[in-house]
Amino acid sequence: MSEYQLDQKDIDVEKLAQKALNHEDLFQELLNGVRSKDDTIRQNCFKILEIIAENDADFLYPEWEYFQGMLYSPNNYHKFIAIYILASLTRADKDNKFESIFNDYYGILAGDKTMTAAHVALNSSVIVHNKPELQSKIIDILMSIDDVHNGKQKELIKAYAIEALMKIYPDADDKEKIEEFVKVQLKSKSPKTRNMAQCFLDRC
After folding, report:
1. Which of 151, 152, 154 is closest to 192 using CA atoms?
2. Cα 86 to Cα 64: distance, rounded to the nearest angstrom
3. Which long-range contacts does 16-23 make (Cβ < 8 Å, 24+ apart)?
4. SS3 26
């Protein structure tokens, strides 16, 4: 049994994230834990590693290939975790590793799985913030959900795209193009997407 109680709910993930920076045994346990079949262990490890990725990306960056491997996993939970961690690690991506997997990352958005596709869309704002040179390319993808996604929940996924665009918008080069896309979504069949579109327009 782990001394860090990663199988327990309501653990202090912030404290453990800080501790992992100086405790190799805990860090390795977290890396193993994100592939655990135990939901609580997997979620705890993911939360802790995501905190590290957000706050100490340089520390976690050497493990890029480990999470890249999870991106290609047939297990959607593993894929989901990789979507978030890799997006956060673009902050430290001095070797432009993300660019080499760009098509694979956004290929998930083009797939037919709602959960993973939606979170690729959502994490796009993080990637654009860390890699502004990809802004135009990513915005175009987010506004092409109808053509890109192969699943049945295109309208729902647009809500996540709009949420990302809301964060990208202040620094966007072509604000009018984004506004036009969002206005069209006021007539979406998805209530969540209609609400998100209205929220965007109210703020912007």
Report:
1. 154
2. 7
3. 16/48, 17/48, 17/49, 17/51, 17/52, 17/55, 20/48, 20/52, 21/52, 21/56, 21/59
4. helix
Question: 8 phi and psi, to 5 degrees?
Answer: -105, 145
Measured distance CA(82)–CA(119) in Å, rounded: 10
Report how far residue 77's alpha carbon sits from residue 192's, in angstroms, rounded to the nearest whole number: 23
Q: What is the pTM of this model?
A: 0.95
Which DSSP string corresponds to 117-142?
Answer: HHHHHHHHHHHHHH-GGGHHHHHHHH
**Tell me: the pLDDT tens digits for 128-186?**
999 999 999 999 999 999 999 989 999 999 999 999 999 999 999 889 999 999 999 99
CA 99, CA 200: separation in Å to the nearest integer?
Answer: 29
Maximum Cα–Cα distance across the chain: 56
What contacts 96, CB < 8 A, 6 or more positions away?
Answer: none
Alpha carbon of 115 to those of 9, 26, 122: distances in Å? Answer: 23, 29, 11
Is the CB of residue 75 less than 8 Å from the CB of residue 47?
A: no
Helix boundaries (H) for 169-190: 175-184
Instruction: Please name the amino acid found at residue 77.
Output: Y
**Cβ-contact 99, 127 below 8 angstroms:** no
Tokens of 64: 């890029």
